[in-house]
Amino acid sequence: MNDDFVYVDDWVPGIRWDAKYATWDNFTGRPVDGYDVNRIVGTKALCAALEDARQRAASMGLGLLLWDGYRPQRAVDCFIRWSSLPEDDHTKRRHYPNIDKSEMFDHGYVATKSGHSRGSTVDLSLYRLHAAELVPMGGHHDLMDSVSHHGARGITQTEATNRRLLLSIMRDSGFNGYECEWWHYTLDNEPYPDTYFDFPVA
Q1: First to last CA, the chain
Q2: Residue 106 exposure: Cα atoms within 13 Å on the Cβ side
Q3: What angle in degrees, to the nearest 10, is found between the helix axes of 44-58 and 157-172?
Q4: Closest C-alpha to 75, from 102, 114, 17, 25
Q5: Residue 113 CB coordination number (10 Å)
Q6: Which pairs from 2-6 meet CB under 8 Å and 24+ separation?
Q7: CA-atom Rg of the chain in angstroms
Q8: What angle do CA 19, 184, 177 make, to 5 degrees?
């Protein structure tokens, strides 16, 4: 692993994670190349900003749950290969109900060069510290649909408020959001803006 990359849980005490691409619970329906263990990796700069976000959330009785951080380029290449395979409907209903999987790239839900591979992007949500339950956001991780966009119609007022709260926490901690995915944030001053790494999460 690059010397400037670390396991996020080692650097951000109390953070929770579920590395979706190391499991069967993702849009490909199987563990993805490059995710050998269920851990989240990122740059030290990412971790410092996440600690700030964690403290801001904690002051409101909330915690951070991470779904993805650093993503090896080989995982992105795996997504590209998967998108060209015949549709089997295994994950379509949950993750991309209104588009074909080959359209994920054109719609901006998956990239052939992902910001995650630079090490300072995370996918995350909020949970309540006292109950350890996720805050309702009006859609789950990697739901590739317009309902996942910031400002989307079709979600409740409470869900819209929770999305804005997450956005506020992350912006105040030095992150930028992504219009198409309420869970996706990139560090504003990322240390490797032009480098796409490929070492495995191991």
Answers
A1: 8
A2: 6
A3: 130
A4: 114
A5: 10
A6: 2/119, 2/197, 2/199, 4/43, 4/44, 4/45, 4/119, 4/191, 4/192, 5/41, 5/42, 5/43, 5/44, 5/70, 5/119, 5/197, 5/199, 6/41, 6/42, 6/43, 6/44, 6/47
A7: 16
A8: 160
What mean pLDDT value characterizes the chain? 95
Question: Reduced to 3 states, what is the DSSP secondary structure of residue 83?
Answer: helix
Residue type, 121: T
Would you name the residues annotated as active-site residues?
Answer: 181
| Pairing relationship of beta strands 62-68 and 16-17 according to DSSP bridges | parallel
User: How many residues does the structure list for the chain?
Assistant: 202
Q: What is the DSSP letter of 35?
A: B
**pLDDT tens readout for residues 19-75:** 999 999 999 999 999 999 999 999 999 999 999 999 999 999 999 999 999 999 999
Distance CA 39, CA 196 (A): 19
The neighbour count for residue 109, using CB atoms within 10 Å, is 22
The Cα–Cα gap between 17 and 82 comes to 25
Residue-range domains of the chain with CATH: 5-187 (3.30.1380.10)
Side-chain-side CA neighbours of residue 26 (13 Å)? 22
pTM of the model: 0.95
